[in-house]
Amino acid sequence: MKKDYALKMDHNDPIGFAKNHFFVPQRKDTKVTYLCGNSLGLQHKDIKVYIEEELKSWKKNAVDGHFIGNRPWIDYQEEVKSMLSKLLGSSQKEIAVMNSLSVNLHLLMISFYRPDKVRFKILMEKNAFSSDRYVVISHLKSRNLSYEDTIIEVSPRDNEDSLRTEDIINTIEKNNDNISLVLLPGIQYYTGQLFDIEKITEECHRNKIIVGFDLAHAIGNVELNLSKWGVDFASWCSYKYLNSGPGGISGIYVNNKFHRDFSFPRYQGWWGNKIETRFQMNKNIDPSISSEAWVMSNPPILMLASHLASLNVFNKIGFPKILEKGKLLTQYLGESLESLSSYGSIFKIITPSNRGSQLSLFFHINGKKIFNKLMDRGFIVDYREPNVVRVTPVPLYNSFMDVYNFVTNLEEII
Ligand SMILES: Cc1ncc(COP(=O)(O)O)c(C=O)c1O
Fold this sequence. Notes:
This protein is of the alpha/beta class. It folds into two domains: 3-31 and 318-413, Alpha-Beta Complex (Aspartate Aminotransferase, domain 1); 77-299, Aspartate Aminotransferase, domain 2. The chain contains 13 helices and 15 strands. The strands form four sheets. Strands 4-10-9-8-7-5-6 form a seven-stranded mixed beta sheet, with helices on both faces. A four-stranded antiparallel beta sheet has the order 11-12-15-14, with helices on one face. Helix 2 crosses helix 10 (301-317), helix 7 packs parallel to helix 8 and helix 11 packs parallel to helix 13 (400-413). Residues 100-102, 129, 131-132, 185, 189, 214, 216-217, 237 line the site of pyridoxal-5'-phosphate (PLP).
């Protein structure tokens, strides 16, 4: 392993200063190395400042805080959306900040899964994240559809770990008359595979199929161009790579082309009404001509404050610089792991080269034991049955020496 390389890269790291602004978990007698941003991002020191600002406004201004103060609550989300638009590659109008991810997937399914007698099938992954499956199954039940007749599952080929784009495309083509919706992740939570969102979207549209993505593991982790790619809808969470705090607020992206289509079934609330007429409390809703039409309730400002603080870190540093370091960090991790003598016999990387920061290590034996030993030594990673340890160096708060130390400790443990 190249320690010199790690030292040199840290020394010359243009965004290395950023990690000093995050709180790394502390243990009494062990130095902690946090490599688990795929699950929950670390807390930035500005979070407290932003939340305290709104607590002060609430204390001082009470209800007037909606209209006065440094950031009036009535349109607090606009600044958040402006920053999110750079990470999603979309217009501000295509974004709404609301709820949590599973809830948003339900709301998007209500609008975008509109089966008829011929077109009623849903294509998704066999190994989809549990919550996504539960969401989809709920919608099948509410429409009296069976899983077997409705869901088309795609999965990696035998003896392969990730899905081939060509297999997804071929499955769409084979079933093109019957598929109503394709619902896939941007990045697969278990393997870390980045899907070819552009190609899949193009294929869906050629076949008049609606396509949506769960971007939980993609946002803030890889470059996205949702508008350019023409993706129909997406949702994400903000507590992983966006570091907005446990259970942090989620958001939706709905392509512009749907904003003037009022034929959609949509669960509505007063906050989806245009701001100009919202407080007239009319009998019928006058929906926003934007993704805001999907918003139901007034937003939780304290959550937005923490979201804004963490997005501002991306904004100040610039996403391209973060991505550039992220690629080098994960490449260093991958190459260092592959250089170990135990590579191949004891474990292998199942993450393909299309990926974000996460690498998933599959242990042929003793995965859980090795994971526990890593944790004892202060390396916080996570474990997913059966036998996968997910390791994620995050460019905002991890260094090349973090990666070096992780790999040398793993080698010792093995
Ligand atoms: C891929 C994916 N989808 C959905 C969820 C569920 O998110 P939430 O609990 O915010 O609804 C998660 C949570 O980690 C996830 O990783």
